[in-house]
Amino acid sequence: MSSNDTQPADVNHPEGAQIKREERLAAPNLPADDPANSYAAAIKDAAIAALLAGVLGFFFLAIRTDIAPGGLEVTTRWALWIISMIVVFGGRLAISLFFRGGKAKGAGNKVVSAVAVPGLGTWLGRILFAFAVILPFFFVYFFPGRDRQFIDLAILIMTYIMLGWGLNIVVGLAGLLDLGYVAFYAVGAYSFALLATHFDFIGFWIALPLAGILAAFWGMILGFPVLRLRGDYLAIVTLAFGEIIRVVLLNWYEFTGGPDGVSGIPKPTLFGLEFTRGEGGFADFFGLEYDSIQRFIFLYYIIFILAIATNLITMRLRKMPIGRAWEALREDEIACRSLGINTTNTKLTAFSTGAMFGGLAGSFFATRQGFISPESFTFLESAIILAIVVLGGLGSQIGVVIASIVMIGGIELLRNLDFLQAIFGSNFDPTQYRMLIFGLAMVLIMVWKPRGLISSRNPSAIYKEKKAIGADMVAQGEGH
Amino acid sequence: MSETSAPLLSVSGVETYYGNIVALRGVDIDVHRGEIVTLIGANGAGKSTLMMTICGNPRARHGQIVYDGTDISAMPTHEIMRLGIAQSPEGRRIFPRMTVMENLQMGAQLVDDKYFDDDVKRVFDLFPRLKERQVQRGGTLSGGEQQMLAIGRALMSRPKLLLLDEPSLGLAPLIVRQIFDIIGDLNKNEGLTVFLVEQNAFHALKLAHRGHVMVNGKITMSGTGAELLKREEVRAAYLEGGKH
């Protein structure tokens, strides 16, 4: 592993050229002195946001499907679509002119990163987050006929986002290729399922942390034998580990129920309120009319909060010594050791932290399904989660979100491509081709963006010039 | 620098093997506090192996390595580094996808956070180029800048003993001189003890207080830097082709 391979060819450019380059790098971060320039930039920015809103909202706002006798009826609502774009344009313009303009002046004296591109990524993240917060109500309001289906899909995507974020710690940050991540998902799911079916007092909220701890524990068990392995060898051992867990679940009939799986897993409650019809249920308590969709909305928010917690913890860890040690481990293990980092512990914490999030997602999966069997934890699941992480760009959090939406949402979308029958004849069944289309899409993404959709990584440390120079600077050189 | 006091680092009778192949055949080297000691030799003589053996990877099969009164021959690498040894390894081994600042942060893992700002400033004062490049990724730096970063990263751990493995490797002569000047200044102004492994015998011997020559895993000559520079054998073997 040589550190020279990314070295640019122009090793010794003259000082003058270097200074120019510095200026160029620093230029976008300077507060815009020229007001005309900043207006133009703001308008351009707002236009991009409006365009984005237009693209994103096209299927939701411009086209509406209603159930009509004999099938679906498509109505178009162009006015609503155009108004929404105008609103986004105006809103974005206002934000960049009033909010950002004020901030830039204050932040002008700080040294801000010149390598990262903060604009698009952070804004995309914020838009997606805001949409995710209101998502269930959005679907209930705009798609009253199909809200259950859409929220269910959103729950599924959110589960994969959480799994992707969990695996991102192991693969993206620590650089340990794990092909058996689904094992921890299974451990989490079975821990909850078995605990809940054997002990009546254990509900979802008690089992959730237990499942996380158990999965983290299994992460360590996997971690120990593979500490000295890297790359291909590690991948094979983790692959085997994933299969071992699945085969044990399949064959240990007395304990796990084997291929019959575990059923009757309790549903989560909101502080003891169950989402059932009648006395004492959630709807009754709040004086609402009972609707089965309430449980789906509740499930959605559980996984949403779990996923956001995963993200926040990961982002926090990345700025802490352990997170930086993970990243350094990915870059160069020998250098890590020579800096006094205990690589054994670093790997184990990466494995067990990733496993813990997998386990939490697993117990959510169990409670959502109400029934689990080893069939849900095949190698294909590991492969999909890994594909999400790799397609998203290793180590990128927002990349995982986009890749999950594209991959999981894309697969579901392909189920509904009935219009293709009009082109290819009525015998054409798009579901049979969806894996093919899916594979092609993955190949195309890798050709177009070989390092994943979001390949840039934001630095976790920025140097701030200290104004006062300590008088003891000279003495400190001794270092002891 | 009294020769009677116990050396900071003492390597005695160290033999290291790669499988069955002998790499070091009984090496004895002492490094005293405040000294620059250099080890020169040809490719494959075992210089880097000795450096790595001091760091515990690979381990010495025979012999003893004592640092500051502690026997470190059987300690794991990360614990050895915690005793106040810092290494700028062969091939620099900076973290290519992390920025200059993050690389420096990695160097300061073992040090109390309160020193961080001052230590960064010290490294940036020594290597102003790094300050210009602080938000750049390590992998996009030039070779000389990467070497500066490797040394800077090692200094961030406030070492008592700095191990440098071929800091001149693949660098332009002007940059080599710059880096050697800085090492000399660190030693002179701050009393930093340096153990330097080099192929660039001329620069290394000029800088060092004492030097050793290694051939085939054995020390064949020892003396002060100036003495070795004058020796005919050294001149013939390592300084052919003129002064670099």
Low-confidence stretches of chain A: 1-33, 101-118, 466-480
Describe the main β-sheet of chain A briefly. 2 strands, antiparallel
Query: Shape of chain A from CA axes?
Result: globular
Q: What is the β-strand count of chain B? A: 10
Number of helices of chain B: 10
Mean pLDDT over the full residue set of chain B: 90
Number of helices of chain A: 18
Outline the structure in words.
The complex is a heterodimer of chains A (480) and B (244). With 480 residues, chain A is mostly helical. Chain A folds into 2 domains: 32-103, no CATH class; 118-455, no CATH class. Chain A is built from 18 helices and 4 strands. In chain A, the strands form 2 sheets. Chain A has a two-stranded antiparallel ribbon. In chain A, helix 5 (147-173) packs across helix 16. The longest helix of chain A is centred in the first third of the chain and has 29 residues, at 78-106. Residues 1-33, 101-118 and 466-480 of chain A have low confidence and may be disordered. Chain B is an alpha/beta fold. Chain B has 2 domains: 1-84 and 160-170 and 187-238, Rossmann fold (3-Layer(aba) Sandwich), CATH 3.40.50; 92-159, no CATH class. Helix content of chain B is 36%, strand content 26%. Chain B is built from 10 helices and 10 strands. In chain B, the strands form 2 sheets. A 6-stranded mixed sheet of chain B has the order 6-7-8-3-9-10, with helices on both faces. In chain B, helix 3 runs parallel beside helix 6 (143-155). The relative contact order of chain B is 0.18. At the A-B interface, helix 12 and helix 13 of A face helix 2, helix 3, helix 4, helix 6 and helix 7 of B.
